[in-house]
Amino acid sequence: MKPAAFEYQRVTTVAEAVKLLRDAPDAKVIAGGQSLVPLMNFRLTRPSLLVDVNGIKALQHVVWDGTYLRIGSLVRHQQIADHAEIQKHFPVLAVAARHIGHWAIRNRGTIGGSLAHADPASEWPAATVALQAEIDVEGPQGIRTVPASEFFQGYYSTVLQPDELVVAVRIPYPKFRLGFAEIARRLGDFALAGAFVEDDGGQGFVTWFGIADKPVRVHTVLPDNMEARREAWQQALGTLAIADDSKSRRHLAVQMAERAWQHSRLEGGKYLSEEAAGGDPL
Amino acid sequence: MTEQAMRPQFMGARVKRVEDPRLLTGQARYLDDIDLPGMLEIAFVRSPYPSARITGMELNAVKSAAGVRAVLTFEDCPILLWQRDSYQVGQPVLAHNEVRYVGEPVVAVVAEDRYQAEDAAELAVVHYEPLQPVLDMVQAIEELPRRVHSHASNVFYHKEYTTQGFSDAFAQAPRHLAATFRTTRQTAVTLEPRGTAAMPDPASGRMTVYASTQSPHRIRGDLAELLGWPENQVRVIVPEVGGGFGMKANTYPEDVVVVWAARHLGKPVKWVSDRTESLLTDVHARDDIHEVEVAYQDDGRIIAIRDHLMADGGAYPAYPFSGAVGETSLASRVLTGPYQIPYIETVIDCTYSNKTPLGAYRGVWGPIASFVQEGIVDRVARSLSLDPAEVRRINMIRPDQFPFRNAAGMIYDAGSYGESMEEALRLINYKDFRVRQSALRAQGRYRGIGISVFVEPTAMASSEAGSVGYESVFIRVEPTGKVTAAMGLGPTGQGHETTMAQLIADQVGVNLEDVVILHGDTDSAPFGGGTGGSRSGPIGGGAALVAGREMRQRLVKLAAHLLEAAEEDIELGHGQAWVAGVPDRAMTIRQLAEIAYTHVKRIPPGMPIGLELVARYQPEQSVSFSNGTHIAEVEVDPLTGLVQVVNYVVVNDCGRLINPLIVEGQIHGGVAQGIGSAFLESLRYGDDGQLMTTSLSDYLLPEATDVPRITIEHLVTPSAGEGGIKGMGEGSLIGAPAALVGAVSDALAPFHVMVDRLPVTPDDVIEWVTARV
Fold it and tell me: Same domain, yes or no, for A216 and A254?
């Protein structure tokens, strides 16, 4: 379990990174390395060059301007979980962050890395789709902005070009409250099923992860009656191409949507503590 | 025996482990820390097919790759494990003409480092002609779809046993039930993977083998025999071992190839398994089916059990014992557990398949048999609407029945079966539990309690540590009065350096810190079986007691002579010998030792010079049974299928305890592994024979947050052996899975669930719960 030979270069600017990526088409960006390094050790990927972007200061900011939350791609999962303004204005993100792996993984792994890796069972791709975020990517032609709903193409697949780098995520303040829920076999594992739900009063949106090949924000009615709501979740689920389709997978998807909806009705601070008390010891 | 020996100072004390400072500060040296000048490393090209003919190999590119020193195939190293005729089949150390499981070693690439070895191994082209794999043990018994080994039946072990009078008793019983129990392949997943290094010494011609093993002398013997070398030309050194759990009791193909390569290249050679290799090729375990029929009475008394035991032994019998045989043959003999079930009829079939060979994993037969046995009792209770604790009481072997001969002819020495259960029920507040349970059910919450009363045969004459029924201890009181002892055991984390020192310090009359325990070097350790089968405490500890006592007698004799007192008046302790009642007439053990080695004219006539001896101990009984009760309280979330262990109690009886702290640590670990067995761990093969769980993101182990607080109490029913010690290395994993899944059955009783499989997954729970909606 040793990686194939590779070159390594550390950069301090996005421009340098992009130039290296352009010149070596099978180069890979390394940030936290939490997905890339295991894949290299299994020799499932064998980049000729690793471009280490950890030294790029410009990608390490979190800015809340009252309308948009802007998170630099090098921001670590744990920083998002701990960020006071994110906890206050986007509690759903802080809660989701705490479900990513374990402390060591959260301290290293980055939001940009997670988005670029596009594991359909991970939290950030679904979060960005659910929150209608925009993803800024920079390449030789400069920066382009891609709506999250168009960024993910399928399993581990995005519109990111080999010479492009995710630089930031811009998330608009949601008009309505969101809730989040996830189930994994063990604390920190990839989700068996997870969901973000936005309740716009009688209707709203559900974005599942761990269910299909990519996150999709699905419109649904949200009746007050639980049985009717269960029916709505089933209908919403019916619009997706479910991976490894099984009765239990659908069951879990419905349960997580329902749980996320329940969470969406809690106030921010209460949400953070209730969710933590609900069997998710951190 | 003198007074101190009867009132030991260290045996039974909660002594902190002397091993821990080096382990916890990262100072321990494991096999991969062995780094010798010029050392080469091996990467294996392994079979990607479960079953295929090898039609050709192209290895020139491998041979000319950077850093490569040798590329080995079976032609170079034509050695079969099992050259004896115990089985008709022996695994070639590198595949010969045919591969029979995914991960089987085919080519060994020896290079200057592991990176280069792996780079070169990728260049190997092996042509395969795939064959239909044999994957289902029930079909394999019928030789379907084909034979794994064309010259040998798929059934490599078949045995039948019937208690006299079984048929009538079974037929005449008023009630009957049937059930099939299925366990799933697991493996030990030691923190430190397997590994071997070998260093030829050109000067002496001897070979030093560094092995991560439980049985240093056994692997030396195996290697000498397989390679055809004189045994005294091989020295085995076992560095720190990060877990064995039975999995490191085997000699593996890689061990032989590493040593062969070192000899033929004249260089030190090392191979350390990576995690994927571990999951693919460490011996697997627990691949068993029990088809059971039970005859019982209206009061819950169980009369007879019929069981067809099947185990999938994998492609070859692991060397030098097959786990399939170990899991079934002993399970068939202890299937009635702590219950006085008078009749049993068992049929055993162990089969070959195109899967990894089955070996030992902590508890071997025990977790399976306990799961079946407690599952039977719970089914009887459920069918009669009786309290499961009450049905256990009715069937439990009573204290006045010891020694008890069970339906399969096994003799149980005394234990505390009923008492352990009553105490555990009290600890978990069983009396009030049913009230709590129904109150919670009314809120849609599903809690359950599972009771597992286990027996644990320990200190057996033969076990996975070999058919050596004894252990040996070499002991030397150094000229300065310090004590050095060496043993043939192979500790893999059990803390023998602490427990054996406790026993010896008491006997020799020195302080604990004055004793050093050596192990794992066949040049210094006396011959012994090693560690496995819960034998190190009762047999190894017994040998430590005997050796210590013999040394004590020598010191007493010497002191009596020098102090001019009768031997029976000499007392030893705290590094001193003195005349009873006259503490002024004393000598230090250091003074005695100095005389024994240097002023030898002062030694009494007939006493040997020096203070060195070897003692051996073989228990008179061929087995001693530990026992205990585990009770788990779980909450099952019917919405997610997840199970949370909310309360866990253990009442354990392993005879006299050497060190309760270590016993409790063993229990904690066994319960954690039990949680893995019950809810998480599963080596899954696809229909194509590929192992699908080849990393720890697929093969799920319990994590710290999955393990609850565990309440432990000890009962003490001493064995008849030295020190009254019984073994206890496996009991906690024997008891735990049955308690945990029994609790799931109890929690989901409203859904008529009776768990019949290990592990129980969220998918299973969701299936059971939604099937009733």
Answer: yes
